[in-house]
Amino acid sequence: MLALEWRSTARADLLAIIDDISDDNPDAAQALKGEIETKVSMLRTHPKAFRQGRVDGTRELVVRSNYVVVYLIDAQTISILRVLQAAQQWP
Q1: Model's pTM, two decimal places?
Q2: pLDDT in the model for residue 8
Q3: What is the number of alpha carbons within 13 Å of residue 48 lying toward its C-beta?
Q4: What is the DSSP letter of 2?
Q5: Alpha-carbon span 32 to 53, nearest angstrom
Q6: Contact call for residues 3 and 76 (beta carbons, < 8 A)
Q7: For the segment 24-44, what is each residue's pLDDT rounded down to a tens digit?
Q8: In degrees, to the nearest 5, what angle opens at C-alpha 75 toward C-alphas 71 and 3?
Q9: At 65, phi and psi to the nearest 5?
Q10: Which of 12, 36, 48, 77 is deepest in the core (most CB within 10 A)?
């Protein structure tokens, strides 16, 4: 099973999204955070189950129609690079 690593940019993205949502609805913010973390944890057993990314070498997990997790896979690790709202540009 591959190791899972959250890059600091991805953690910051997630916290910013959750903070923004929690201003209006703290319960919805926590539900989204839990959903993202649960789906990301599934990558350890099914890393290639999601679509190829817009940037070469990356893959993208669509959590909801508005939220995308961008990640890389190497021989030992899945690196979570970004957590984006669908309207955000990347890289």
Answers
A1: 0.91
A2: 98
A3: 3
A4: -
A5: 22
A6: yes
A7: 999 999 999 999 999 999 999
A8: 65
A9: -60, -20
A10: 36
